Amino acid sequence: MKSPEEPRIIIALDYKDKISTLALVDQLEPSLCRLKVGKELFVRCGPDLVKILIDKGFDVFLDLKFHDIPNTVAAACQAAADMGVWMVNVHASGGRKMMEYAREAIQNNEHQPLLIGVTVLTSLNRQDIAEVGLDLEPADQVLRLAKLANDSGLDGVVCSPQEVSALKQEIGQNFCLVTPGVRPKGADIGDQQRIMTPSQALTSGSDYLVIGRPITAHNEPLKALKNIIEECQNI
User: Fold this and answer.
1) What is the sign, positive or negative, of the torsion defined by CA atoms of 22, 24, 30, 34?
2) What sign does the dihedral 66-152-111-25 (CA atoms) show?
């Protein structure tokens, strides 16, 4: 799924405009990180910004969390593949048929992005998911959805670093795990609930770490990135 040399850190570009985004990106190096474009930035700047990032040499994770009827999600995933993104995601709670359609839509594409399922958002705790009718621990729902995603042909899932070890044990080492909720020691946890440090997450088995503000809000983003990479190399 990954080589030891490839970048393991995905930087979340949580900006409102192209100028701010590119001001940050121009301080980074494609050999050290990948980039995540989420809903707000994509809605404001669209595919053109994604193309600019790809043309600069960065792998892009298009984090739009598609969740709709199977045909609509399949078409969206096909569009993402045509755009040339490295990774795209869908909500695993959309069900088996939706995920299978998404897989089929891109499997014969000239460019095949990694297809990742979203399990339980790291901002949610047990009380939050109980309010939407799931009377169980978040980790149990994550495992259920991850198994369904694997059975549906997805490459992996997005999950909390706290669930990584169990998923690797239950599903296997080749199932790709992308973990937000990663904060260096001393960093503000923001709106995340289930978190770990980068070194803890990698030790547990995370394949890729999504990190935003500890890098993007730093006055020296490249230095912050390199510090995290150094911490991870010492595990």
Assistant:
1) negative
2) positive
> What's the pTM value of the predicted model, to 2 decimals?
0.91
Asked if 226 is an active-site residue, the reply is: no
Q: For residue 233, what pLDDT band results from cuts at 50, 70 and 90?
A: confident
Helix (H) or strand (E) holding 88: strand 87-91
CA 127 to chain centre: 24
What pLDDT, in 10s, does the model give residues 89-114? 999 999 999 999 999 999 988 899 99
- CB atoms under 10 Å from CB of 77, counted, come to 27
Q: Which phi and psi angles does 145 have, rounded to 5°?
A: -70, -35
Residues 177 and 167: beta-carbon distance below 8 Å: yes
Catalytic position from the list 18, 36, 39, 65:
65
9-233: CATH number: 3.20.20.70
Beta bridge partners of 224: none
